[in-house]
Amino acid sequence: MSSPKGSQAQKTRLPSFTRKVPLEVPSPTEKDWSKDDEEDYVFKDPDEELDSLPQPYRMINKLVNLLFDRSWEVIEERDALRKSELSRIRPTVYPPVVESKLNKMPNCMAISQDYVFIGGARGFSIHSLFNAKQIYVWEKLKVDVTSICATDLGSEILIAPVDEIGIVRLFYLYKDGLCLIKAINEVEDTSKQSTCLKMEISQGGDFAAFFLQGAGDIWLDVYKLPKESWLKEVEHPQLSINPKKKVRQLQLNTLDAMTSDNLEM
């Protein structure tokens, strides 16, 4: 048993091991708390943690997540593209002034002044550009018109349709009146019939050139177009011409034809 003196000595030594510092009481407000402690601790809800899936479900989960991520990237790219297209200035859309239905399938078309010339079965037709109204129809061929050309002569228009056989004709349109000038390469003997390969009319309609082919040869025909005489004929028609006949025959002056030997092909 310990003596009363020994126990009393131990009791007297205890105060020497205590730290004589005042105790700190934390502030009741959160703003005075140290922020360093908050960064060191991460609070997690144990109910929100996901358990690791076993194979092969873990691999399936990764594939599904990968597919979702790539799909979302595609969606974002398409959305960005759509926004960029909407931000662009759209061109002005001009609706047609007038629409007109055609009874036959057209093969070619040309525009000059206020008219549109449509080539099709057995001939061609002339329409107004303002109301698409059909002004004139010339259908006297047994074949279709495959190409048509219209040249502005000022107050008149020179029309040159080419049919399937290769025959080219010149027409003269003046004040809604149509005049046939000439069939350039039409002959009575079909064995000697030539074909028009290419044609061009100069600006202003002073000259017309035609590439023709027949019997193994190719040559160039150049015509000087007497526009002044045509204008006089239509303004002052001869008494012998029937005024009720809309299509009249006009004269055409021709230059010396240039053969293929004189051409640098």
TrEMBL record:
What biological-process terms (Gene Ontology) are attached?
electron transport chain
| UniProt feature, compositional bias: Polar residues | 1-15
Location of the region described as Disordered in the Swiss-Prot/TrEMBL record: 1-39
Entry-linked InterPro entries? NADH_UbQ_FeS_4_mit-like, WDR93_beta-prop
Q: Which domain of life is it from?
A: Eukaryota
Q: Which Pfam families match?
A: WDR93
Q: What is this protein called?
A: WD repeat domain 93
